[in-house]
Prior knowledge:
This protein is α+β, with helices and mostly antiparallel strands. 35% of the residues lie in helices and 24% in strands.
Amino acid sequence: MRAEESTARVVAVRSRLTDLELDALMVTAPENTRYLSGFSGTLGYLVVTRDGAEILGDSRYWMQMEAEAPGFTLVRSVASSGLLALLTDRLKGLGLRRVGFESQHVTVDQHRRLSGAVPAEIALVPTAGLVEDLRMLKTPHEVELLRHVAMIASRAFDRVRSAVRPGLRERDVAFLLEQTFRELGADGPAFDTIVAAGEHGALPHGRASDRVLALGDMVVVDFGAVAGGYHSDTTRTIVVGEPTAEQRRVIAAVRQAQTESMALMKPGVTADAIDRRARDVLAGEAHAFGHGLGHGIGLMVHERPFLSASDQTPLKTGMVITNEPGIYRPGWGGVRLEEMVLVTEDGPEVLTPASHEVGVG
Length: 361
Ligand code: ZN
Ligand code: ZN
């Protein structure tokens, strides 16, 4: 990660500390630590104070911390006492009084142990979504990382798509995709690839099973790659052989909901309004669309904002959000189409050019 990027993010956190009258923020979510410092390990605390920033680390990660987060003070734990004791010592040593913690990431158990360890004069103050707020807006460098990993996954899909034929199992298709991600330079799959054929397609989060693909099967393929910590997420629905008129009609209806709602993905439009538009377009079939329309994506596959009825976040230039309407009919199957969309001043830009051709094999 570039030093100036890290510095800008830490400065942004400090201005929130001022607003919230906090002396420090204790960051525990690994993605948030990575976002602010570059350190990609999972064991450690990042403490951002008004004038400093230090990482408290376990010995297994010392070398990685030095390499990935050179601008940060590394405070080493002693094997005999552990991270919690070190954290308590540092909070005292820095003379902090009001310390924010990430209430969405600290477990009840961790909170109980921490409260028991810090002296009474240090107040632990819950904060929610402070770093996540910053993560919604991608920098140009992050957009490049997302564009790159979305392109790898799209190219992998186009390659594997032409190999899909009757007789392959769902899990064979998933394996081919995940192998191709790596061949094309990704670190691996962003999540367990979903390949859901026929009636399986009616389960929005079905995995890839031993079910064998047959002529006439409609298949939902939901796939993503990860590279440099950034994730992609795309869905295509294909038909093995020649699609029926009804399969084509439902796929076209979902595509229409996607196209019309995506047109609204521009600065100033709120997330819930975009979700509502997709449901309006699906009209009589909206009852068969049981999940939110989309989600932000970056260091996590699912992050803010969410295109759903309960999220009123106005979209801004630099957000990257999926758009994934679907229709699911128990016993018949499902259709989902998913793109990653960059919000720009000029409107939506699709980052996932994987083929939309329906018939395969
Ligand atoms: Zn997906
Ligand atoms: Zn998604």
